[in-house]
Amino acid sequence: MELRDLSDHVEYRAGRGIEEVARELGRDPSEFVKLSSNENPHGPSPKAADAIRAAASEVHRYPKAVHADLTAKVADRWDVTDEQVWLANGGDGALDYLARAMLDPDDTVLVPSPGFTYYGMSARFHHGDVAEYPVAERDGEFALDAESVLSAYDGERVVYLTSPHNPTGARFTLDAVRDIADGVDDALVVVDEAYGEFADGPSAVELLDERDDIAVLRTFSKAYGLAGVRLGYALVPESWADAYARVQTPFAASAVACEAGLAAMDDDAHVEQTVESVEWGREYVHDELDAQTYESHGNFVLANVGDAEAVTEAAKREGVLIRDCSSFGLPECVRVTIGTREETERAVAVLNEVLDA
Question: In this chain, where does the modification N6-(pyridoxal phosphate)lysine occur (predicted)?
Answer without folding.
Answer: 222
